[in-house]
Please model this.
Amino acid sequence: MRRTRDNLGMVIALALFAISCGGGAGVTNKGPVTNNQNLVLGSPSLSFGNVNVGSSNSSTTTLTNSSAPGGASIAVTEIAASGAGYTVTTPALPMTLTPGQSLTITVTFAPKSAGTSNGTLSISAAGLSQPISVPLSGDGLAPGQVSANPASLAFGNVSIGSSKSDSVILTNPSGGASITVTQIAVSGVGYSVTAPNLPLTLSAGQSATATVVFAPKNSGTLNGTLTVTVSGSSQSVTVPLTGAGLAPGQLSANPSSINFGSVDLGNSLQQSGSLTAAGTDVIVSSASWNGAGFSLSGITFPTTVKTGASAPFTVTFSPQGTGNVTGQVSFLSNATNSPIVVTLSGAGVQHTVSLSWSASTSSVAGYNIYRSATSGGPYAKLNSSLILGLSFTDSSVQGGATYFYAATSVDSNNNESAYSNIATAVIP
Model:
């Protein structure tokens, strides 16, 4: 009986062992047993950074069956990506990964709008209670675009032979992607542009300056266009250009010559003139003059003489000696007939009146000479000391004047006689 019990106990133990072994063999027959711990990802998350809207960025990760050799194979049944702009590329599924085998997964982020986009890479495999999740993140950047300020350029009236420049600021607004400007060009007669070296990359918020020059070659209204081309963009930015070429300005002086005639030494004479512009406004930048005794005043430089208007000036002649003097005033300007020359002429003269008289019948020490500008006086003495002779020359007279002279005699006691008869002198 005891032996029987031992045998029975052994049978029972063997039966239990058989059941345990049979269960394991059944699972093997049905297929591999997958274990979440045996699937290893190359990256716990995928970050795509900044991606321009309309562009894409791809990243890869690996999914590996880390089972030891001889271990179970794992059947990957589905790989999918969720979130705006995300797609996934894999080999055909389902796919069985043997121990040590890897699967490459490619995720692409192609944002359709600006802003942060989060998503999830989901991996399902046979035997997993829930999919493996891989966080996805990326930012969509609005397309870069160039703006021009000002939106148009108007150069107004510019004389042929002259030029005028103005600037356009090209800006890539903040918050967008970088852009590359590949061409900056102008069209239209008389227009040219000076631009930065191309190609030019503008980051978000960055600006650059292009300078447009208008130098008309003919008169009339002249239109043009500044065109800015951006790489990858089907549209160009255009800035209309307008301007008018004016016929060359002409400057004239009136009078073209000034004759001062005779001017007494010690005196000055002024005469006026004017500068007149025709065709276009004229800028008079400076003037120079020569000739002893000539000078220019009444005008400042630079000065703009408007079309049809005049600018006055004054020339003064102060002779430095006797005799004829010539000179000229030369006006420099942007007129096509610059310089304009005004010729000058004049004569410095020294008028004199020679007086003589008969000796007094009395004993005298000398004589005095008196002069008045009006008949009947009052008279002023001209000599500072007694005149010992019988003549006197008055060198302080002015042309065009009339003078009245009288003489007196003075004795040794300084007694002075009455005025002599009056002599009249008319100065030419």
About this structure: The first strand starts at residue 39 and ends at 41. The chain has four domains: 36-141, 147-246, 250-349, 353-426.
